[in-house]
Design brief:
By secondary structure, the chain is α/β, with parallel strands linked by helices. The chain has two domains: about 30-165, Orthogonal Bundle (Endonuclease III, domain 1); about 185-255, Nucleotidyltransferase, domain 5, CATH 3.30.420.10. It has helices spanning about 30-45, 50-60, 65-75, 120-125, 130-140, 150-155, 160-165, 220-235, 250-255, and strands at about 100, 105, 110, 145, 185-195, 195-205, 210-215, 240. A four-stranded mixed β-sheet has the order 1-2-3-4, with helices on both faces. A four-stranded mixed β-sheet has the order 7-6-5-8, with helices on one face. The longest helix is centred in the C-terminal third of the chain and has 15 residues, at about 220-235. It is elongated and about 90 Å long. It starts with about 30 loop residues before the first helix and ends with a helix. GO terms for molecular function: nucleic acid binding. It comes from Paramuricea clavata (Red gorgonian). It holds the Pfam family Integrase_H2C2.
Length: about 260
C-alpha cells in the first residue's frame, strides 16, 4: 500500500535525482580545499597582491553589511528572500556561490569588495581608459559588489579620455560614379511609392533629366514594359544602375 503526497516544486529546492525528494541539508559543507583554490587562484593570476587581500579581509571585518552576509554564509540563509536583511538581499539569488576564506568573502572566484574599498577599485578598473567593455571584463574577472557594472558604465561614459579613445565604426566612404560624356549613356532607375501608388523613375547621369512612369503593379514584367517605353523615346543606355531589387535582379529584366 502506497501513499502519494503532492509536494509543490517551489518546496523542492534541491531535488534528488531518482526520487525527486528534496534533500534535508540546510547548510552543506564545502571542502576547505575548494575554498582555498578560490583565493590561491587569484594569487596565482597576480591580479591582487597578498597585502591587498589582507586589506580586503580587514575592511570586510569593518563593513556591517558584509558582516551580515558573513553571518548568513556561516550560519545558513533564511528560506525566503523576504526574510533576509535588506542589506544582504542583493546576494540572495546567488547565495550558493558565496564562500568565506580567511575573512574574505568570495562570489565564486571573485572577491566581494567592501564599501570602503569600492572607490579605489573603480579608479583601478578605469585606469588606462580602455573603454566600457574592457573595463567591465576587467572587473568581472576578479571583483564583485552589487551594482558594480552599472557604476562602471556610468563612470566610463562620463570620462572624457574614454569617450575620446572609444572605437568608432569607420564611416563608409562614398564611391562617386563617373559622369558620362554624353546624355543618356548612363542612367539610374528605381521604384518608389507616392500616396499608395507605385512609380518607376529613370534618371540620366549627365543631364539629371528624369522620367517617371506610373505602374499598375510592381511585377518584373510591368517594370520591363515601362522601361522599354522610356528607352524607346530616349534611346538605349550603355549602363543602367539599380539597387538590384527583385524586379531588377529577375531573369526577365536582365534579358530584355
Amino acid at each position: 500500500m502506497f501513499t502519494f503526497k503532492f509536494v509543490p516544486g517551489k518546496d523542492i529546492p534541491v531535488a534528488d535525482t531518482l526520487s525527486r525528494a528534496f534533500l534535508h541539508v540546510s547548510n552543506p559543507e564545502i571542502p576547505e580545499s575548494e575554498l582555498n583554490c578560490f583565493v590561491h587562484m587569484i594569487n596565482d593570476q597576480g591580479t591582487i597582491s597578498k597585502s591587498k587581500l589582507s586589506e580586503f579581509a580587514t575592511e570586510t571585518s569593518k563593513d556591517p553589511d558584509l558582516q551580515k552576509l558573513k553571518n548568513c554564509v556561516l550560519n545558513g540563509w533564511p528560506g525566503k528572500a523576504r526574510q533576509v536583511d535588506p542589506a544582504v538581499r542583493p546576494y540572495y539569488s546567488f547565495r550558493d556561490e558565496i564562500t568565506l576564506y580567511e575573512d574574505v568573502l568570495l562570489k565564486c572566484n571573485r572577491i566581494i569588495v567592501p564599501s570602503s574599498l569600492r572607490d579605489e577599485m573603480r579608479q583601478k578598473i578605469q585606469h588606462g581608459h580602455f573603454g566600457i567593455e574592457k573595463c567591465k571584463a576587467r572587473a568581472r574577472s576578479t571583483l564583485y559588489w552589487p551594482g558594480m557594472i552599472s557604476e562602471i558604465v556610468d563612470i566610463v561614459s562620463k570620462c572624457d579620455a574614454c569617450v575620446e579613445n572609444r572605437n568608432h565604426l569607420p564611416s563608409e566612404k562614398l564611391i562617386p560614379h563617373e559622369v558620362p560624356s554624353t546624355p543618356w549613356e548612363k542612367v539610374g532607375t528605381d521604384l518608389f511609392q507616392l500616396k499608395n501608388k507605385d512609380y518607376l523613375i529613370v534618371a540620366d547621369y549627365t543631364s539629371k533629366y528624369f522620367e517617371v512612369s506610373a505602374l499598375p503593379n510592381t511585377l518584373a514584367s510591368t517594370v520591363v514594359q515601362h522601361a522599354k517605353s522610356i528607352f524607346a523615346r530616349f534611346g538605349i543606355p550603355k549602363t543602367v544602375v539599380s539597387d538590384n531589387g527583385p524586379q531588377y535582379s529577375s531573369h526577365q529584366y536582365k534579358t530584355f
